Automatic annotation (TrEMBL):
Listed PANTHER family: UPF0750 MEMBRANE PROTEIN YITT (PTHR33545:SF5), UPF0750 MEMBRANE PROTEIN YITT-RELATED (PTHR33545)
Highest taxon in the source lineage: Bacteria
Entry membrane topology: Multi-pass membrane protein
Biological source species: Gemmobacter megaterium
Name of the protein this chain belongs to: Uncharacterized 5xTM membrane BCR, YitT family COG1284
Length: 200
């Protein structure tokens, strides 16, 4: 069994840098196609679409309230690593459009590419004791306090988010978005095994 707490500082740094970079690339693909995703990133995407503000700053600000919950529920190491991951992702999503452009990107392939990039990003972050913050922390807190299953809380949040997306985006965009979110969850479900890795 591999405990993320045994990773060296350098190993944690490269894992978080990799995870944040791949997550940022996934978000650039997603927003280029005008799609949405679940969890806190999806909330930030919808706010960005509705207001015209950039995803990066919105995502950074939306996550701020969750750091207090993370510190309380998960400890300072997890919270600091998560803050670093969110900050790097937020900055890179502002920079990457100047580094990467798409002359042609099929929306179905783009949704799958987003899912693969984001899934691998989250795997790296989980294995180094970090996350991308937000709803997952709240779900764990509600599970502890009220007995609500964390998975159901997250699913309920995503259901509401996608329902709102249907009011803002074409049905085809929401359908492609669902495929992307499905790929993310499949990557994590298949590859993130508790008998091999411990998620903090």
């Amino acid at each position: 069994m591999t405990d993320p707490k045994t990773h060296s500082l350098a190993e944690d740094a490269q894992g978080i840098a990799y995870g944040a970079t791949m997550a940022a690339f996934g978000m650039v693909v997603l927003t280029h196609l005008g799609l949405v995703t679940g969890q806190t990133a999806g909330l930030a995407v919808l706010i960005a679409y509705a207001t015209g503000w950039g995803f990066g700053p919105v995502f950074f600000v939306v996550n701020i309230p969750f750091y207090a919950l993370g510190l309380w529920r998960m400890g300072w190491q997890f919270t600091l690593k998560t803050f670093a991951a969110v900050a790097i992702l937020s900055a890179l999503t502002m920079l990457m459009p100047g580094w990467v452009s798409f002359a042609n990107l099929n929306p179905l392939f783009g949704a799958v590419l987003f899912g693969l990039a984001s899934g691998s990003a989250l795997l790296a972050l989980f294995r180094h004791g970090a996350s991308l913050g937000g709803i997952g922390i709240l779900a764990l807190l509600l599970q502890d306090r009220l007995g609500w299953r964390a998975g159901w809380v997250q699913l309920g949040f995503d259901a509401v988010l996608f329902a709102v997306a249907l009011l803002m985006l074409p049905v085809s965009a929401v359908a492609y978005s669902f495929i992307g979110a499905l790929v993310v969850n499949l990557v994590i479900a298949i590859n993130h095994r508790k008998d091999r890795y411990i998620a903090t």
